[in-house]
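Structure first, sequence second, as always.
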């Protein structure tokens, strides 16, 4: 089955993934080693949890938690690092990912290029295509993410056209390499502001939960996650909303952009939270082990 066999939402029909048959008492899927690549979106920023490695949980952890049910030999690694650009993700994570010999890979990249560097979607896609070709050589199921629709988010909405172009490129890349599309753009529930952290750049815990459900549904995996009911939004007038937008820009967007442009965050010193494929409930690897894998 190729990417063209899926409908426009990017979802495969249940049973469309080879080997995804029903297994009594277990999550029905063929995968035993899941490796996630990307930036803060995949790392889980916006979904704090002190019980998890790195102190954040995120959609990828939630997916792994479901995939491991009934599979004692299931292992999970998350190589994502916040703040990385597409080129940095491919340079720092593709090699270590292939070395882990995964049979399920997820890749989300390019968001920071779009938001903070006005990245050219066609040039980014050319580089992404080369990275996906390399990842596809592993023979693993490969999941690619489209970018979200920021139509209602001040400032970020100006990137909407370029994100749409990039998404079309991603769909073409997925078709060429028989990858699966996890369609954030088409996930309309993400238009709800409660799906996003206060910084409006990262998903909230509710948003990460929602994306995890979408990924599992896209893979055709039965799971126990259910839609969560968000609290009511506070009512406010149009002027109050505009004041809120200005406060958000001053408190979150401008400082974030300043740190990114001035390179005040030493990205080379940041390490993946799960650099080694291990059981989902495994403890955090040693710092020495983390550094050796990420070099």
């Amino acid at each position: 089955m190729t990417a063209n066999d899926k409908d426009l939402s990017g979802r495969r029909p249940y049973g469309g993934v080879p080997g995804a048959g029903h297994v009594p008492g277990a999550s029905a899927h063929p995968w035993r080693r899941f490796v996630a690549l990307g930036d803060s979106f995949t790392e889980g920023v916006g979904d704090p949890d002190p019980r998890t490695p790195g102190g954040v949980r995120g959609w990828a952890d939630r997916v792994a938690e479901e995939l491991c049910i009934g599979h004692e030999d299931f292992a999970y690694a998350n190589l994502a690092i916040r703040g990385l650009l597409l080129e940095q993700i491919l340079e720092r994570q593709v090699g270590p990912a292939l070395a882990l010999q995964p049979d399920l890979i997820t890749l989300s990249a390019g968001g920071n290029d779009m938001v903070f560097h006005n990245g050219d979607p066609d040039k980014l896609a050319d580089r992404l295509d080369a990275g996906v070709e390399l990842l596809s050589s592993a023979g693993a199921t490969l999941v690619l993410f489209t970018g979200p629709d920021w139509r209602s988010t001040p400032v970020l909405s100006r990137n909407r056209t370029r994100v749409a172009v990039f998404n079309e490129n991603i769909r073409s890349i997925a078709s060429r390499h028989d990858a699966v599309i996890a369609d954030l753009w088409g996930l309309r529930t993400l238009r709800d502001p409660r799906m996003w952290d206060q910084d409006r750049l990262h998903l909230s815990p509710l948003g990460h939960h929602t994306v995890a459900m979408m990924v599992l549904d896209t893979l055709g995996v039965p799971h126990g996650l259910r839609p969560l009911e968000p609290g009511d939004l506070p009512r406010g007038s149009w002027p109050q909303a505009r004041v809120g937008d200005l406060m958000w820009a001053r408190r979150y967007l401008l400082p974030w952009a300043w740190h990114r442009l001035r390179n005040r965050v030493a990205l080379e010193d940041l390490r993946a939270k799960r650099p080694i494929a291990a059981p989902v409930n495994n403890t955090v690897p040693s710092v020495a082990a983390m550094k050796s894998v990420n070099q």
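Margin note: The longest strand covers residues 33-37.
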